[in-house]
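Appendix B. Worked example

We walk through a single record from start to finish. Start with the input: the chain for Glycosyltransferase 2-like domain-containing protein, marine sediment metagenome, length 102.
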Amino acid sequence: MDVSVIIPVYNAERFVREAVESALAQEETAEIILVEDGSPDNCWDICQLLAVQHAKITAIRHADRKNHGAGASRNLGIRNSHCEYVAFLDADDLYLPNRFAV
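Next comes the structure step. The output line below is what the pipeline stores for this chain.
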């Protein structure tokens, strides 16, 4: 089972790396889509760096670079996903091991 993990990112520069690492640790994670939501901090730079460092990661943002909220960011992530299954992860949260195990 391949899963797209969508992570809306807003003011989470202190947490997003750890969230991404927890998603990468899941065997089923085929791609991670970081949706930067107009953060005033360095989130966009961090998202771009993570995308360069990991082939499974894509960093995107809203066209107008404004804050649209978590729901709109999740929807943008869904529109850019390539897997049959989609999961969400907040940028300040973590997946426990075997998150997608059945």
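Two observations about the output. The chain has one domain: 3-88. The mean pLDDT is 97.
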